[in-house]
Specification:
With 124 residues, this protein is α+β, with helices and mostly antiparallel strands. It has helices at residues 5-26, 56-61, 76-86, 111-122, and strands at residues 40-42, 52-54, 64-70, 92-98, 106-109.
């Protein structure tokens, strides 16, 4: 049975908002998606580009352009192509995927970038 388009968009919107809240908590700032001046913003469904808009110090300190997918059947090849296409120069793509089969989203990240992050952590 196929999911309604409006339900699919709601699942995606909820995932985007959850990721926005987690980033806001990480940087200890308030998240209000209704505030256009907020440093973190969830892009409206159907618009092209990255799913999470970062501004100011958050953009500078969080080096990822984010794609969010809430789906039961993965289309990872298509999603990665989209994430890479929407990633700006000198930034990294990051893909969050949520399925009803597990409680929390999973993250897909370029292998080299993963080890670059670990290297920064362990060299401190």
């Amino acid at each position: 049975m196929s999911i309604k388009r409006s339900s699919a968009k709601a699942k995606g919107r909820n995932l985007q908002l959850k990721i926005c809240q987690k980033i806001a908590k990480l940087f200890n700032i308030n998240f209000d998606n209704q505030d256009e001046q907020c440093l973190i913003h969830s892009r409206e469904m159907g618009q092209s580009g990255i799913d999470i808009i970062l501004r100011g110090k958050i953009y500078e300190e969080f080096p990822f352009d984010i794609e969010c997918k809430a789906a039961e059947r993965p289309s990872i090849k298509v999603w990665l192509k989209q994430a890479k296409k929407n990633t700006k120069k000198n930034r990294n793509w990051l893909l969050f995927w949520k399925s009803k089969d597990w409680h929390t989203p999973i993250v897909l990240l370029d292998c080299d970038e993963f080890f670059n992050l670990l290297e920064k952590i362990y060299k401190k």
